[in-house]
Amino acid sequence: MKADVAVIGAGPAGLAAAIAAKENGAKRVVVLDREAYKGGILPQCIHNGFGLHIFGEELTGPEYAARYIDMADNAGVTFMMETMVLSIDEHKVITAVGKDVGITTIEAKAIVLAMGCRERSSGALMLPGDRPAGVMSAGTAQRFVNMEGYMPGKDVVILGSGDIGLIMARRMTLEGANVKMVLELMPYSGGLTRNIVQCLDDFDIPLKLSHTVVKMHGKQRLTGVTIAKVDENLNPIESTSEFVSCDTLLLSVGLIPENELAMGLNIQMDSVTGGAVVDSDMQTSMDGVFACGNALQVHDLVDFVTEEASRAGKAAAQYKKIAKLFVNTIAGSGVRYVVPQKLVRDGIDKTLFFRATKVTRGWYTIARCRGKIIASRKRVMCAPGEMENLVIKDADISGGVTVTIEETKT
Ligand SMILES: Cc1cc2nc3c(=O)[nH]c(=O)nc-3n(C[C@H](O)[C@H](O)[C@H](O)COP(=O)(O)OP(=O)(O)OC[C@H]3O[C@@H](n4cnc5c(N)ncnc54)[C@H](O)[C@@H]3O)c2cc1C
Predict the structure, then answer these.
(1) Residues 351-381 pLDDT 10s
(2) Do 12 and 100 belong to one domain?
(3) Ligand 1 centroid, distance to 12 Cα (angstroms)
(4) Are 280 and 343 in contact (CB under 8 A)?
(5) Is the CB of residue 180 below 6 angstroms from any atom belonging to ligand 1?
(6) Burial 118-153, CB ≥16 within 10 A → b, else e
(7) How many domains does the chain have?
């Protein structure tokens, strides 16, 4: 099969990229996804909070997904579901295996990588103890409760205060579980402030910052965990150890962009984001291969996924192999990373996405080019768990752009 644009992943990123590719003239746009249903992670996110920026409405995940699935269907996008992409070669030939098609290949003029991310598992934490039932990632529990109709347990401890952990603290409570606490290793939460308020504070669920689980108890089924406070080097303080009985430990300890396909192509990766290095067209270091969504950088808001993916889909539809002139973006003081890592001078204003290294209140996010401020915003609060963005004018870019978070603008 041949495609003008092939999109890998039918989550919000893949859907938006495919729609934008169609809108920008690509004739045959094919989306491949290993799942039987479209929408990526959204069908299991039945809480609201999706689409505030784009639609000005608080939609649930399935509602948000449904809007884009309808748009993609109306635009004439071809879907190949239950089809797992195994590899991509340097000529942009995709090899996939599917329930209906067996092993198949697709020759694509341009490819958009939109594979999302996966959760860090309990194995990565190396917690001492046996391997009892009742320990799982928060996303797995979310799928059990919201899609499969199973309750993972009754007395719950959640390790990690990322958004999925916070959402699941509320969800498990609403389903009748006793959520005893959420533990966070860092001195600040990894989730959105609105989720701390709506999912923990509103339900009197304690958030214990600078705390972790040091041991799991139970042979067949989890019977409890030992928790402890950590010092400034994140080492547990033994004298603060305490036993908490529970039958379920949910882990919300990080998301990892799913990039085996990109790495198989030897695409240049960013060691901080875990995603590909891209330019402002979302093109990776391989000509004609674009990346967006959680595969590129872990997002907290789906609206930004959609915006980023629309840019990738448009650029994929318009892709021609041409030499581009780039300037780099640089993560300066207070900033962990900036995406895109390279900017193309093409007359179009650019949105820079970045994350803070620490919590600050009342500081400024600033973009500078050759020492001159080209964009800035005063922020009530910046936190590592909340993605920031700044829009810069293409006309103001005359060299590398450095992004900082500073107390004053001087
Ligand atoms: C629990 C949770 C709660 C959230 N809550 C909110 C919220 O309240 N508000 C908000 O705005 N955002 C929220 N988000 C964030 C938002 O849902 C994500 O940012 C968004 O879903 C990312 O979209 P994506 O398309 O990049 O990835 P995904 O939605 O993960 O989709 C990726 C797709 O790629 C497919 N895929 C991967 N590899 C392959 C392969 N090799 N072959 C074929 N298919 C493949 C997968 O099957 C999947 O369908 C939440 C996220 C989670 C996990």
Answers:
(1) 999 999 999 999 999 999 999 999 999 999 9
(2) yes
(3) 7
(4) yes
(5) no
(6) ebbebeebebebeebebbbbbbbbbbbbbeeeeebb
(7) 3
Distance from the alpha carbon of residue 48 to the mean position of ligand 1, in angstroms: 15
Q: Do 265 and 361 sit in the same domain of this protein?
A: no
pLDDT tens per residue, range 169-189:
999 999 999 999 999 999 988
For residue 293 and ligand 1, the question of a CB distance below 6 A is answered with yes
Domain assignment of residue 245, given as a range: 121-253
Mutate to test the pocket of ligand 1, among 31, 32, 45 (most ligand atoms within 8 A of CB): 45
Residues 139 and 190 in one domain: yes
Q: Where are the beta strands (DSSP E) in 66-154?
A: 78-80, 83-88, 93-98, 102-113, 117-119, 135-137
Residue 162 sits in a domain of what CATH number? 3.50.50.60
pLDDT tens digits, 217-250: 999 999 999 999 999 999 999 999 999 999 999 9
Rounded to two decimals, the pTM is 0.94
Say yes or no: 127 and 249 in one domain. Answer: yes
Q: Is 167 in the pocket of ligand 1 (CB under 6 A)?
A: yes
Q: Does ligand 1 lie within 6 Å of residue 115's CB atom? A: yes
Tell me the CA–centroid distance for residue 294 and ligand 1, in Å: 7
Ligand 1 pocket residue status of 114, Cβ below 6 Å: yes
